[in-house]
Design a protein that fits this description.
By secondary structure, the chain is of the alpha/beta class. The protein has a single domain, classed as Alpha/Beta hydrolase fold, catalytic domain (Rossmann fold), CATH 3.40.50. It is built from 15 helices and nine strands. The protein has a nine-stranded mixed β-sheet, with helices on both faces. Helix 6 links the parallel strand 6 and strand 7. The longest helix has 17 residues. It is globular and about 55 Å long.
């Protein structure tokens, strides 16, 4: 079981009075961990028939995960690992505390690269790629490919504070990251990679701030169908309809009644784990078991970030915000910033290349043989190489 001997420190950090960024350490209080263990011990389990994952999170799988969480998962060790692997800062931007990690590049001229996670993920998703991107020579690469790597936590996700405005979405998050990169960190031009919701924010940065956004790379691209739609477009749109009918229940409720769902997920760690784990199974290239591509510690560390920061509700609320005001990614807006796409076979939506080319200034396209919605964890080597290959001719 995790040690409770460390001194209590509030995981809800604040920036300095001057507004300058300050170091942030991930550290749960003893009271938070004791409350978590109490809730895990008091779980009321439903008794569903064994249906694998077809009706939701597999009961036997989840009970094993929770048993590990309660008795073997060492959160204090994960805290130390996070603070070393992804050293964190907090900066006040547009009235919000924005959490980020900055790993300086080791090379002759590192360019800044902003990495943005999606939902239900967090900044820890990027831990496998920050080393090769920031210090390529240490991983068998060329030091000229080094980046200053900035890993952001989206507002309302993890340790970034939640916006007060319910209609805050990807376009508004882009404003925050533009200010973080330019005003706080001093990067006038920067590259961006995003998956899922992070891809939406990357598109919004390119749309709103093309003079600062040198290029964007995405693993969940949007597209614009032809008028009239081509047969390829029709197949894509029909596939999206089928996916929405079979897999889109989470999106429907989060975009219409997120508060009702949040009461349960904010109160029950097992409910939260079930909600997040189901997506990590359904959306990854895991052959029916998330443990085929993620470790238990990776899964639980991501869940713990949501639990300790109490961010599940504001993170879900983005779906509601995007229903009220669609962001640039889903509007039929042309994005004239160089764009690279790595489209993995198990990604939840796969627009045809021609549709993506209508929306973006498409400079790079790759369709790997394996991988899904969480490529930085599932296929880190492929993602790193694609980022290098796409950005290399755009440097300087």
């Amino acid at each position: 079981m995790s040690s409770l001997d460390s001194p209590p420190t509030d995981t809800h950090a604040h920036t300095s009075d001057s507004g300058m960024p300050i170091p942030f350490e991930v550290r749960a209080t003893n009271a938070q961990l004791q409350d978590l263990y109490r809730r895990l011990d008091a779980t009321i389990w439903p008794d569903p028939p064994e249906q694998g994952w077809s009706m939701g999170t597999n009961s036997a799988w989840l009970q094993e995960l929770v048993k590990y969480w309660r008795h073997d998962f060492d959160w204090r060790s994960q805290e130390e690992w996070l603070n070393e692997r992804l050293p964190s800062h907090m900066a006040q931007v547009r009235g919000l505390d924005i959490h980020y990690s900055l790993i300086k590049g080791k090379g002759p001229s590192p360019d800044p690269l902003l990495l943005l996670h999606g939902w239900p993920s967090s900044y820890v998703e990027m831990h496998r790629i920050v080393g090769p991107l920031s210090d390529p020579a240490a991983y068998g690469g060329n030091s000229e490919d080094a980046f200053d790597v900035i890993v952001g936590s989206l507002p309302g996700h993890g340790f970034s504070s939640a916006p007060a405005e319910p209609a805050f979405g990807a376009d508004e998050a882009a404003n925050c990251f533009r200010d973080l990169m330019v005003e706080v960190l001093g990067y006038e031009r920067f590259f961006v990679h995003g998956g899922d919701r992070g891809a939406f924010v990357a598109t919004s940065l390119a749309n709103q701030f093309p003079h600062h956004t040198a290029a964007i790379h995405q693993s969940l691209p949007m597209g614009i169908p032809a008028d009239p739609p081509t047969p390829e477009d029709l197949a894509w749109l029909e596939g999206m309809g089928r996916w929405s009918a079979e897999e889109g229940g989470y999106s429907s409720i989060q975009s219409t009644r997120p508060v009702s769902l949040a009461y349960g997920l904010a109160d029950s760690p097992v409910g939260l784990a079930a909600w997040i784990s189901e997506k990590m199974c359904a959306w990854s290239d895991c052959d029916g078991d998330p443990l085929n591509v993620f470790t238990r510690d990776e899964i639980l560390t991501n869940i713990m970030i949501y639990w300790l920061s109490e961010s599940i509700y504001p993170s879900m609320r983005f779906y509601w915000a995007h229903r009220q005001s669609p962001p640039a990614a889903v509007r039929p807006d042309r994005i004239d910033v160089p764009t690279g796409i790595t489209l993995f076979p198990k990604e939840v939506m796969r627009p045809p290349r021609a549709a993506v080319d209508r929306k973006y200034d498409l400079r790079f396209w790759n369709e790997p043989e394996r991988g899904g919605h969480f490529p930085a964890l599932e296929q880190p080597e492929v993602l790193v190489e694609d980022l290098r290959d796409f950005i290399r001719p755009l440097r300087g």
